[in-house]
Structures are given as C-alpha cells and as structure tokens.
Design brief:
By secondary structure, the chain is mainly α. The protein contains 2 helices and no strands. The chain has helices at 2-43, 45-50. The chain is rod-shaped and about 65 Å long. The model has no long low-confidence stretch (mean pLDDT 81).
C-alpha cells in the first residue's frame, strides 16, 4: 500500500514536469519561428517597399 502511494506521487510529479517542459518547449519554438519570420521580413524586398522607414 505504501508503494502505491509513493508511485502515485511520483506519477503526479512526472506529469507536472512533463507539462512544464512541453510549455517551455512550445514557447521556445514559437519564439524561434517569430524571430525567423522577422528576420525574413527584413531581408525581403517587399518589406522595404511596404515599410520604407523601417530600419
């Protein structure tokens, strides 16, 4: 019975860690995609035409 309680606590802890890791991973992927999109915008000729004052 004691092992069951310990196992349940471990499972809860692992699930919490997993959810935190997924959130951090998702956040970093979104940030990477965002940075990639903004760097492509700066390089494309269209951005110069649509935003002539953008540096």
């Amino acid at each position: 019975m004691e092992d069951e309680v310990r196992d349940r606590r471990l499972v809860r802890l692992l699930e919490q860690i997993l959810h935190q890791d997924i959130a951090k991973f998702s956040e970093s992927i979104i940030r990477m995609l965002d940075l990639k999109a903004t760097s492509q915008d700066k390089q494309s000729p269209e951005s110069c035409q649509t935003h002539p004052k953008k540096k």
